[in-house]
Amino acid sequence: MTATLPETGTDVLADIKIIDADAHLTEPADLWTSRVPASRRDRVPVQKTIDGITAWYLHDELWASTGGNTISTGREKILGSHVVQPFERVDVSAWSVRERLELLDSMGIYGQILYPNGIGFASNHIFAIEDEAERAEILRIYNDFLAESQEESGGRLFPQALLPIWDMDLTVKEMTRLVDKGMRGFTLSDKPELLGLPELIDPYFTPMWDVFNEARLVANFHIGAGARREEMEAMRGNIGQKAPNTSGPGVPSVAPPAWKYYGKQRRLAVGATQMYMSNVRIIVNLCMSDLFDRHPNLKIVSAESGIGWIPFILEAMEFQFDEMVTDPAELALARRRPTEYFRDHLYVMWWFEQVAPAKLIHDIGVENVLVETDVPHPTCLYPGPREHFTRVMGGLDARSQRRVLQDNAAELYRIELP
Fold first, then answer.
1. 0.85 exceeded by pTM
2. Cα separation of 302 and 142, whole Å?
3. Are 65 and 55 in contact (CB under 8 A)?
């Protein structure tokens, strides 16, 4: 089905309350220091600006950048960089609930599912902190900030919290604590084995999956969430980190996404283009496993990964399954075929794309697709996402429009619409 441009002046989405399934809540400058006694402020992350570059420091050592922020004061989107510096130039809508809601109103967006920003897209930055007591406190304070933001938003902003997956007892306690505060989901590393932990299918993670299943929480895998702290900061390239993991003098063990021949801007463009499809690994492994047999209520979101490549992956999984999985023991591992698990348990999302949303929505599955803006990251649809969605989806049937732009996310994250 091909989208056609709506008539000039016609708002075909007028009755739809668009839910943005992936935006980012930037960590405010006083996130941790305002929530601990003065005597403990040297034990939590603090923002510092040195030579015009703002970053997060812990124990006077560089810990994290301030993340992707491209909307500057005055709500102007800055091109050519993934971060406005120094932090005082970042528009307050990046972290202020009131200002974010005003921004959403100006964009024609009703609600947002929010992910972290500077501290990475899972708890890997926090896991890199050596002291376990500090780790736990810093994570708890961060999650409290998210819960406060959700409460303040009046049912329009829904942050996805972090989990201390290095301690499964603590993980279950934190999930239970945040469920009581109304949280709807969590964002996870898709490669915990890179942190020295078991794979997600390992029995180690069963208590966590049990809570997801029983409380009907959403497990979110944002692109880049599996990167270790050092890798993430090296990829961002703005705070002096060197790429980790060398197998010899000056020889990387894994080739970087972009050739060093390029300048910084082109390297960022090359890396970002490839990162969209980094979630292929987690999607294929989930659909080939028996995780959903054991946890039938589990819902998984692949965030900021686009949808154009999904039909190919669905076909490839089915083809390779028939070609390669013939042993009775292998066949007995899971009860259903890969695409059946995808249809019932996985969600993917799009934002800048035009071809896939217009032509491939039904091949992917209308019930499996969400929409996002990625505010305030470099690729964000700002200031006119509603116009973009209207242009791309204007030729689709009304049910498909409403499913993708509103109902799928509202049902998944249990969002009450007025």
1. yes
2. 23
3. yes
Q: Could you give the number of structural domains in the chain?
A: 1
- C-alpha distances in angstroms, 47 versus 50, 64, 69, 128, 258? 10, 9, 15, 18, 30
The residues pairing with 262 across neighbouring beta strands, listed in sequence order, are none
Residue 417 inside a domain? The answer is no
Please state, in angstroms and rounded to a whole number, the distance separating the CA atoms of residues 272 and 257: 9
Nearest to 189 by CA among 150, 149, 229, 216: 229
DSSP secondary structure string for all residues of 18-48:
-EEEEEE-PPPTTTTGGGS-GGGGGGS-EEE
Which tokens in the block code for residue 346? 């996985």
What is the per-residue pLDDT across 142-171, written as a single tens digit (0 to 9) for each?
999 999 999 999 999 999 999 999 999 999
Q: How many CB atoms lie within 10 A of CB 309?
A: 18
pLDDT digit string, tens, across residues 288-312: 999 999 999 999 999 999 999 999 9
> Residue 15 corresponds to which tokens in the numbers above?
């009755």
Residue 7 lies in a domain: no
Which among 227, 210, 233 has a CA at the least distance from the CA of 123?
A: 227
Q: How is residue 40 written in tokens?
A: 């403990």
Sign of CA dihedral 280, 318, 328, 296: positive
Token readout for 369 is 């697709």
SS3 111: strand
Host domain of residue 163: 19-28+62-412
d(CA 68, CA 188): 19
Tokens of residue 7, six digits = 């008539």
Asked, for residue 307, whether it belongs to a domain, the answer is yes
| CA distance linking residue 219 with residue 321, whole number of Å | 25
Handedness of CA 175, 404, 23, 193 (dihedral sign): positive
- What CATH number is associated with residue 221? 3.20.20.140
Nearest-CA neighbor of 127 among 55, 189, 183?
A: 189
